[in-house]
Amino acid sequence: MSGRYDLVIVGLGSGGTVAAELATSLGKRVAAVEGRRIGGDCLWTGCVPSKTLLASAKAAHTLRHADRYGLEPVNAEIDTAPVWRRVRAIRQELAETDDSPERFAALGVDVYAEMGRLVAADTVELESGRRLTGRFVLLCTGSRSAVPAIEGLEQAGYLTTETVWELERAPDSLIVIGGGPVAVELAQACVRLGVQTTMLQRGAGILMRDEPQLAHRLADALHAEGVTLELGVDAASVTVEDGAKVVRGGAGQWRAREVLVATGRTPATDGLGLERLGIATTARGVTVDRSLRTSLKSVYAVGDVAGRFLFTHAAGYEAATAVRNMFFPGSERAPETMPWCTFTDPELAHVGMTEAEARERHGDRAVRVWRHDLARSDRARTDGHGAGELRVVTARGRVVGAHALAPAAGELIHELALAVRERMRLRDLAGLVHIYPTLALGFGQLAGEAATQRARRLRVFSR
To answer: Is there a single domain that holds both residue 34 and residue 95?
Structure first.
């Protein structure tokens, strides 16, 4: 291993792994510094374990409601210990294949299993005292769970997305503090696995960044499944009474075996030496420009630590963008539009503006909202999932936002993400043949409706 590199990567999670692969494919000498576990939050505490849990929970829910498909329902009591073992097994399988140190070594990456900090614009110092220098440094250290200051919480003990996966099995009852994607996903998964689940959300609704009406429909679905959803609750204190944890807020109190805190993320900037080098930061993370460069020209930051979009796919895309800009200056800008999905059942996917955001920016007269209820979808009805909606927001005829509350909504949204990015008109999608019967056909039907309305306006010119 040499101490001089083209690129030194600090953090080998979702962003760092993509950067390492791309940079080595360009023939660059790369070092990666990772003092914890390769794969980062996504593999160990985020997407992989949560989606694994959701798959088990969906299977249990389908068995319990098999009569929806003309089958005999199965109401067996669920032992969650094998479910938690499955989560850990799948994490380990991925760690030993896609995210193993040997794989990156085979790519030509020098992996240092230590923590590192910046001591100069081109130098990272390891815990051992060794120094690595590079033309460029990429910071992709991710984020950690943000824990609110609630009286008695530390003394009572609590779970986060970092610790919940290390349990032997799910608790028999759970209070989830928070109403964002992680809180909502885990609340639904747990209640489907037989855990008495209460969700306390400080805001007036869940998933506050999504289209409010669709988020409200999802909240109704969670309530119907047994999640106790309490809105407008600012948790003030936690105590332990008779073996249970009691959360109090406002005039209410709630009791459960465990408390899970899912109130957002904090960028992992501690110990990186940023302040001493004058690298600008805010509470959201490291400040970057449109090339993902920090206030030091040789240092870039991507993913959660940069605080632009807190998603695995965003970290990977930004990492590739940053590497291109390092070695092909000015070749690409950081993405401004980022699709995302909350993987509940049904899923809630989002790209671009909500209706309210579009009206604020473009004015009421310029904005139109196109809706397709899944009750009209043949595929949704044959699959027993008729509750949901596809929604497209246009401004002056061009697609500026799209939202889907539907099974596999995360798979559906990409067509509209392209439309938003390319500033397409909704009617342009009418020229794309959509397969029948699919849920995506709903977007094709909306596009056809837009094209038909335009044709009616132009019929005076027809022969």
So the answer is: yes
Closest CA to 83 of 55, 62, 63: 55
pLDDT of 463 reads 56
Question: Is 300 in contact with 326 (CB distance < 8 Å)?
Answer: yes
Give the domain extent around 96: 4-145+266-327
Q: Which helix (H) or strand (E) holds 56?
A: helix 47-64
pLDDT digits (tens, 9 = 90+) for 203-250: 999 999 999 999 999 999 999 999 999 999 999 999 999 999 999 998
Which tokens in the block code for residue 67?
Answer: 């009569």
The strand pairing partners of 254, in sequence order, are 247
Quote the CA–CA distance of 433 and 431 in Å, as a whole number. 6
209 shares a domain with 99: no
**CB 180, CB 203: distance < 8 Å:** no
Alpha helices (H) in 234-353, listed in sequence order: 274-277, 312-327
Q: Mean pLDDT across the chain, nearest whole number?
A: 95
Cβ(9)–Cβ(32) under 8 Å? Answer: yes
CA angle 148, 152, 157 (to 5 degrees): 80
Contact between 178 and 160 under an 8 Å Cβ cutoff? The reply is no
Domain total of the chain: 3
Does residue 184 sit in the same domain as residue 270? Answer: no
Q: In which element (H, E) is residue 200 found?
A: strand 196-201
Quote the CA–CA distance of 113 and 32 in Å, as a whole number: 9
* Beta-sheet strand order (sheet of 228-231): 228-231, 196-201, 173-177, 258-261
Per-residue pLDDT at 94 exceeds 70: yes
DSSP 125: E
In a 3-state reduction of DSSP, which class is residue 444?
helix
**Residue 339 belongs to some domain of the structure:** no
Q: Pairing state of beta strands 143-145 and 173-177?
A: unpaired
Structure token pair of residue 460: 């005076």
- pTM assigned to the model: 0.94
The 10s digit of each residue's pLDDT in 74-87 is: 988 899 999 999 99
Whether residue 184 sits in one domain with residue 70:
no
State the angle between helix axes of 80-96 and 47-64 in degrees (0 to 180), rounded to the nearest 10: 140
Q: β-strand 281-282 against 285-286: which pairing, if any?
A: antiparallel
Peptide bond into 437 cis (omega under 30): yes
**Cis bond upstream, residue 346 (ω within 30):** yes
β-bridge mates for residue 446, sequence order: none
Rg of the chain taking only CA atoms, in angstroms: 24
